[in-house]
């Protein structure tokens, strides 16, 4: 893992660079788990966003409608370079996969079968999910204090284990968690 | 042809704004609209397209492009994809714009700090849900755990995915797995 200890000051991200990064990210996203890849490229490698800025994008992208990975890409692009940055990220994320999937549609139209692919794809998807698990573990290390840990565990239990709908859960948990952060901030000051 | 393009936009643009959490929340409605309401494709074709969209990179909701392709070729695919992604993207940009204007204010820092543990919970809930949704067996769970450990130890994610793809292909060829 390239752990170059750069200063956290965000270097200016060029539009071409944003397009390039998200093009490779878009093609890497098999079976979900893309937040992990983005975290690696955007936070760890390039320091474009802070850890917390990135996580806010994760939460926002999941709560608003739309594909999570596309939303997160738009958010990152916009925070870096405004609407042109978001457009570059959008194009990179969706353009190549769009053309790729149409290529597969052509093959399918010619009668090429996709049987047996399912098992292999299941394995690759599991490996892709490992990226998310890794990101979750890495970011969890930054949580300080009992409160944030309880919020993280509660969110996981409500949505993952109890299968409660996400929006109401977040609508309850987010104000509580932000209130907690605010209380800790004022107490420290 | 132009009316098919319009029909595709009319189907996918509203779906965009209710696609909470992305594709899975609207697959059922896409199927109903494409197969039953408009007859752009058969139910069996939809299942095949679903498998194809899984085989391709990009979000699973790109199946919309495939439905558009079946309905009206390339321009249909483009209309369906733009219909599905542009409205939700505009909404996100509106929220993001407000967010960006806050700059590095204390309010924004507190909100970010408050959202961080929720994002962590959401990430793990997503992993847990997806690994269970596929009817995944012990092999997939073991893959997930081993790969997570490998990444934690600094392995390249490209290498990890490549090794897993080769391993599963080998197991499939050898008849050890498959259905």
Automatic annotation (TrEMBL), chain A:
<feature type="transmembrane region" description="Helical">
    <location>
        <begin position="86"/>
        <end position="108"/>
    </location>
</feature>
<feature type="transmembrane region" description="Helical">
    <location>
        <begin position="167"/>
        <end position="183"/>
    </location>
</feature>
<protein>
    <submittedName>
        <fullName>Chromate transporter</fullName>
    </submittedName>
</protein>
<comment type="similarity">
    <text>Belongs to the chromate ion transporter (CHR) (TC 2.A.51) family.</text>
</comment>
<dbReference type="InterPro" id="IPR052518">
    <property type="entry name" value="CHR_Transporter"/>
</dbReference>
<keyword id="KW-0812">Transmembrane</keyword>
<dbReference type="InterPro" id="IPR003370">
    <property type="entry name" value="Chromate_transpt"/>
</dbReference>
<feature type="transmembrane region" description="Helical">
    <location>
        <begin position="114"/>
        <end position="134"/>
    </location>
</feature>
<dbReference type="Pfam" id="PF02417">
    <property type="entry name" value="Chromate_transp"/>
</dbReference>
<feature type="transmembrane region" description="Helical">
    <location>
        <begin position="146"/>
        <end position="161"/>
    </location>
</feature>
<keyword id="KW-1003">Cell membrane</keyword>
<keyword id="KW-0472">Membrane</keyword>
<feature type="transmembrane region" description="Helical">
    <location>
        <begin position="18"/>
        <end position="38"/>
    </location>
</feature>
<keyword id="KW-1133">Transmembrane helix</keyword>
UniProtKB/TrEMBL annotation, chain B:
<feature type="transmembrane region" description="Helical">
    <location>
        <begin position="110"/>
        <end position="130"/>
    </location>
</feature>
<comment type="similarity">
    <text>Belongs to the chromate ion transporter (CHR) (TC 2.A.51) family.</text>
</comment>
<feature type="transmembrane region" description="Helical">
    <location>
        <begin position="74"/>
        <end position="98"/>
    </location>
</feature>
<keyword id="KW-0472">Membrane</keyword>
<feature type="transmembrane region" description="Helical">
    <location>
        <begin position="159"/>
        <end position="178"/>
    </location>
</feature>
<dbReference type="InterPro" id="IPR052518">
    <property type="entry name" value="CHR_Transporter"/>
</dbReference>
<keyword id="KW-1003">Cell membrane</keyword>
<dbReference type="InterPro" id="IPR003370">
    <property type="entry name" value="Chromate_transpt"/>
</dbReference>
<dbReference type="Pfam" id="PF02417">
    <property type="entry name" value="Chromate_transp"/>
</dbReference>
<keyword id="KW-0812">Transmembrane</keyword>
<keyword id="KW-1133">Transmembrane helix</keyword>
<protein>
    <submittedName>
        <fullName>Chromate transporter</fullName>
    </submittedName>
</protein>
